[in-house]
Amino acid sequence: MNQIVAALDAAWRILLIGVVLGAGLPALFSFGVRAMAWGTGGEATNHDEGTLPPPHPVGRVIGIAVFALVVLVVLLGLSYIVAHGLGYNLVFNGGLPAFVPR
Amino acid sequence: MSLVSPEFLLLALVVVTALAFDFTNGFHDTANAMATSIATKALTPKGAVTLCAILNLVGAFLSVEVAITVTNAVIRIQNPDGTPIPEVMGDGGGALLLILMAGLAGAIIWNILTWLWGLPSSSSHALFGGLIGATIAGLGFGGVKWTGEGYHLDGVVGKVILPGLVSPAIAIIVAMIGTKLVFKITQGVNQRYQETGFRWGQIGTASLLSLSHGTNDAQKTMGVITLGLLATGTWTDTHQIPFWVKVACAVAIASGTYLGGWRIIRNKGKGLIEISSPQGMAAESSSAAVILTSSQLGFPLSTTHVATGSILGSGLGRKGAEVRWGVAGRMGLAWLTTLPAAALVGAVMWWIGNLFGGATGAVVVFVLMVAGWLWMWLHSRRDPIGRHNVNDEWEAEGIAQTSDDVPVSQEVTQ
After folding, report:
1. What is the chain A residue with the closest CA to B67?
2. A35: domain range?
3. ipTM beyond cut 0.95
């Protein structure tokens, strides 16, 4: 019985963080794709027959910024795996990630 | 001149068998990281297995964490410090080596059989199952750690059964939410433009999954081999894994990954749902987040269950997408049966090995395992799946499932 409680206790934490990171990352990426499409204009967006939307440079800037953020998150994930293997733990000090020896 | 001593032969067979298991672990799990990237053409089949193999190789070297006590999760053949218990040290460790040998053989046979059927079953469940079966046969039911004490997740219940039930559910929910968000946010973006964009995202998340697989899975084989070395006194340091073991395991899992379990990749990437690259990225992000969070919290889950759950969730999250529940059901059935089936094979193998005894017994088990492997491999040649046809259109009854019960086109027109 205690084992089930322990498993469920871990489960809701994983679910919560999983939703934030695991659903948040592709959502963020989608904003990037959408901004880039708006920035590129033309055939990148769905549009009415005969009227090609003009490109918006701002969209490209936003898109690139968002993609850079996604790359950062992936890199953080990679460094977590590397650090974990080498015996370090990831902690967040006031929001900033840091690695401390276990 | 005497050739090799029986003790050495027994140890050598255990090491070779463990590496063979590591190899099957590699090709069985290529699909976890790469099935969706291959199905959405984010990567070519060859590019995908190459990237995945390299990251698995790197990952295997990255983990310096001592994995010597890996069997302690489910069976009692090791003390908490990693040394083998005295009961299994008879015949210079021969009793322990026979348990390892039979357990690994059980795990390998089940892994290859599920590969033949194209079913993504968990390699760690197979390994634990095989070892549990061999331990029951060798030491009785008391040799198995069935459940943990108090709130510490341990034993068969805490480390295998509960995580096996909980983790796919979590992955399904996370991937479903992710997929819904993705399609909501990208409304109005041209579909072809979307596909291209998300392919890049997929490569990033697939890399995360591959690397984390290498750091987690190669360790288990390293632990088993080192335990065998400890039992024979060939190695005495319980705080370190011999360097050659590390190299051998890393190479075994990476080359297995490179071979690619195409039958499983096909069923996972094409069989469950018709996947688009936004869904693929949502599924892979979900897997990566769930796996990394669990490893941070010390929750022992199976990568295979999470990856399959995520793909299913990404199908449920898309409006109007069809989920092939028949395929999903077969996979679920494989998850439930993996542990008991591998245990049964492991137990039978131990019994046969024990009948002959010593190195002879191990040789017999080894020969039986190789024969089984050959038989299944020949069977797979009837409807080979490889790089060339892994992405073919999915037909009502997929090619991989029918291989065993329906002899495909049995030369009727002679």
Report:
1. A85
2. 2-101
3. no
